Amino acid sequence: MWETYKKGYKAYLQLEKSLADNSVEAYMRDIDKLTQFLQQGDQLKKPGDTAAEDLRQFIRWINKLGMTAASQARIISGIRSFYKYCSIENIVSSDPSLLLDAPKLKRTLPDLLTFGEIEKLISTIDMSKPEGVRNRAILETLYSCGLRVSELVDLRISCIYRDPGFVRIIGKGDKERLVPIGKSALKYIGIYQENIRNHMSIKPGNEDILFINRYGGKLSRVMIFILLKDLVKKAGITKRVSPHSLRHSFATHLVEGGADLRAVQEMLGHESITTTEIYTHLDREYLRETLHQFHPAFRKY
Fold first, then answer.
1. CATH class of 115-284
2. Pick the catalytic residue: 156, 172, 177, 203?
3. How far apart, in whole angstroms, are the C-alpha atoms of residue 206 and residue 225?
4. Contacts with 90 (C-beta within 8 Å, 6 or more apart), sequence order
5. For this structure, is 279 an active site residue?
6. What is the pLDDT of residues 144-182, one digit of tens each?
7. What are the pLDDT digits (tens) for 177-234?
8. CATH 1.10.150.130 in the chain, residues?
9. Whether residue 5 lies in the annotated active site
10. Active-site annotation holder among 33, 148, 248, 253
C-alpha cells in the first residue's frame, strides 16, 4: 500500500521538483522512518487516515532516538513535502503536517578562512606531481567561484567559457547559473588540461568531466574532502576546514569588499536571499575600528 504512495512521491520529487538524486534519497528515507514508526501500531494507517497527533508522536519517537534538532527539522521538512504531494494528488483530504512544529535551530556560520590562509593552503600543494597540478586547479576554482563540492566534481569542460570568464554551473534541482571565474583559476585549469589531463586515458562517459582521478574517472565528493584535509594539516591550520569553508570564504570576502548581496545570492545559486545572509558577517576588526572612531565611549582623545 505505502509502496505505491512512495513510488508516486519519488516520481514527484524527480520530475516535478527536479531534485538531485541525493536529495530524493534523503526525502525517501524520511518517509521510510515514518512508515517504520506507524508499523509499530496494530495496523499501518494510510496517509489519509494519519492524524496530526500520529505525526506528533512520530516526532517524539525520533526525538527519543537521540536525533539532533537539525536532523529532526529536516525530517519534518520531508514529512511536510510528502503530505503536500498527497494533497496535490488528492490522497488526503486535509494535510496533518501543517500543525507540526519544527525545533528552532541556531543558525551557525561555517569556518571562515582568511585570504592569507587560502594562499597558505595553496602553497602547500606539490606542483611537481600530476595530482598536485590538478589540486591547485581545484582549490583555485572552489575559491574563485564559490562552488558546492557536488558542483565542482560535476563541472564540465564544455561549461567553461574562457573569453568572457564565466563557468556554467548546474546546481541543486538542475538549475543553471553563470558564475564569473578568476584568471588564476582559468590559468591553472589550462595548465592541468594541457599537461596532465590531455595525456590520460579517460573512462567512457567522463570525456567532458574536468577533474578526474588517476584512473580516468570522475572525482568523488569524499576525495575532495580528503585532499583538503591533507592540505589543511600540512599548512598547520587548526580550523575545521571543509570544501564548504572555501564557499563561505568566497561569499564573505565578496560582501566585506562591498559586493551587493543579491549578486552574491546569484553567484551562490541560492533560491532565497535569507539563505545568503548566513554567509555575511562583518569583519570583527572593522567593527572595533568603527567603535573607536565613532562611539564616545571608545573614541581615543
1. mainly alpha
2. 172
3. 21
4. none
5. yes
6. 888 989 999 999 999 999 999 999 988 777 778 888 899
7. 888 899 999 999 999 999 999 999 999 999 999 999 999 999 998 999 999 999 999 9
8. 2-99
9. no
10. 148
| pTM of the predicted model as reported, rounded to 2 decimal places | 0.61
134, 197, 247, 248: the catalytic one is: 247
- Is 172 catalytic? The answer is yes
Identify the CATH class of 2-99: mainly alpha
Q: Which of 68, 69, 81 lies closest to 29 in space, CA to CA?
A: 81
**Is 247 one of the catalytic residues?**
yes
